[in-house]
Amino acid sequence: MSKSAPRYVCQECGAVTARWAGKCEACGAWNSISEEAPRESAPKGLGGKPGKKIEFVGLEGATTADLPRLMTRIGELDRVCGGGLVAGSALLVGGDPGIGKSTLLTQATAALSTQVPVVYISGEEAVDQVRLRARRLGLATAPVQLASATNLRDIIQTLDVADAPKVVVIDSIQTMYADNVEAAPGTVSQVRICAHELIRLAKRRGFVLFLVGHVTKEGTIAGPRVLEHMVDTVLYFEGDRGHQFRILRAVKNRFGATDEIGVFEMTDGGLTEVLNPSALFLAERRGNVSGSCVYAGVEGTRPMLVEIQALVAPSTLSSPRRAVVGWDSNRLSMVLAVLDARCGLALSGNDVYLNVAGGLRITEPAADLAVAAALVSSATDVPVPADMVVFGEIGLSGEVRAVAQGDARLKEAAKLGFAQGLVPASPRKGKAQAAGGPLAIRPIGHLQDLLGLFRPGQ
Ligand code: TYD
Ligand code: MG
Asked: Last residue of a domain, which of 229, 256, 275?
């Protein structure tokens, strides 16, 4: 590609092509390619200049992760970050607009500012707006240093000092721009260079860097995927704006477990932690209605009970509707197919709606059995016992497979007053997967046996 020719860059995946196309060949996205000015200097060969010799060290030795971690004292956030923040690490916080990213970071920085110097750089809001939010949250007196800026050069210049702050928030990375790159803020080249420079500085000066990232309508962080590779931790803030619950999910964490989630509630006074999410998710459950089933799930290290609701209704459409909220629609199709082929329960003439109550999104296959129970219950109009929790994975031949952390799931259920658990029978001796403690255990080996539980009159 010649030096002066324009480049066409996919805004989804960052792939570069020589000419514009409607569809990106690399990631398959439509209408994502836009023109960008050529790079100032195309990468050349290394030339004749000698390099420096690199030093090798052993695996053993001190690391920054051993240092005491900075605690935000927002328990849910600290846990999702793997037990506090590591100096020199970069965290990307993604989420839909209005979900509460700025609110969470305002609260976190306010708590951190009483321990270490903290700066909050907003490219989206004026200082006034950030102040108003802080006042609304009752945090106006916290010693956070505030600025409204978008020029990367100015920001780097300001932060690249010996007494650099210990925590820096950039809200958001899509509003930042480097003046040596001829592309609009938010484009792949801008996002990439801004993130790269800021992360490098964070490592060099040893501060914690929070980058707020916008999310595309497909639900991934806007800008190149490389952004996720560059940072140490990727947190997604999710939740339904119609619900007050917000889930902070670690999808990548170099300093802790992924799949860890923190649960918050958006209130008038900002985000408050939810210490017992199971109770919250089950709060509006009405016992003894058909089509509802309590699933004993585990999110990260934390057991969580949620209600799964199914509605099976006769359809007038030639291809009946399948609508899913909070679960994978492919998995629903699989469960429906297994019910049809292995258990003789054909729902192909019915519309099927599935909902995970409370706005939680479940990704575990361990929810299969609970989904199947809700479907069968709705189809037969026989309620699942109100005091029963269900978990188990379903295989294509209809077998119910054991899942991880069975005991933790049942313990949580017992804590919330449930009396029986429908759990996978272990393949050996048909014994139940988990002991159950105070719960009465009903082991189940094949999906067929589920239908037996839902005979009207039982
Ligand atoms: P915000 O943090 O600005 O979202 P983001 O930065 O992710 O775009 O949150 C905005 C929403 O949160 C807004 O609709 C108002 C609501 N909110 C509350 O309900 N309570 C509060 O105390 C605050 C500060 C915001
Ligand atoms: Mg914001």
From this structure: 275
pLDDT digits (tens, 9 = 90+) for 420-448: 999 999 755 455 666 666 889 999 999 99
Based on the domain organization, do 284 and 271 belong to the same domain? no
Q: Is the same domain home to 267 and 301?
A: no
pLDDT value at 40 more than 60: no
Please tell me whether the overall predicted TM-score, pTM, comes out greater than 0.85 for this model: no
Q: Per the domain annotation, does 46 fall within a domain?
A: no
Q: Same structural domain for residues 328 and 195? A: no
Question: CA angle 258-84-215, nearest 5°?
Answer: 50
What is the residue with the minimal CA distance to atom 21 of ligand 1?
Answer: 270
**Domain tally for the chain?**
3
99 CA: nearest ligand 1 atom: 7
29 against 344, higher pLDDT: 344
Query: How many A from CA of 371 to the centre of ligand 1?
Result: 33
Based on the fold, state whether residues 169 and 129 are members of the same structural domain.
Answer: yes
Centroid of ligand 1 to alpha carbon of 99 (angstroms): 6
Ligand positioned closest to the Cα atom of 122? 2
Shortest CA distance to 384 belongs to which of 398, 368, 396, 372?
372
| Mean pLDDT, rounded, for 336-344 | 94
Asked if 105 and 185 sit in the same domain, the reply is yes
- Per-residue pLDDT tens digits for 22-33: 888 888 888 888
136, 266, 271: which to mutate for ligand 1, most atoms within 8 A of CB? 266
Range of the domain at 30: 1-36
Q: Confirm whether 25 is domain-assigned.
A: yes
Average pLDDT, the chain: 88
Using CB distances shorter than 6 Å, the residues near ligand 1 are 95, 97-103, 133, 136-137, 266, 268-270
- 137-192 pLDDT per residue, tens: 999 999 999 999 999 999 999 999 999 999 999 998 999 999 998 888 888 888 98
Judged by its nearest atom, the ligand closest to the C-alpha of residue 170 is: 2
Q: What is the CATH number of the domain that holds 122?
A: 3.40.50.300
- Give me the mean pLDDT over the 398-423 stretch: 91
Q: How far is the CA of 150 from the centre of ligand 1 (A)?
A: 21
Select from 275, 291, 313 the last residue of a domain: 275
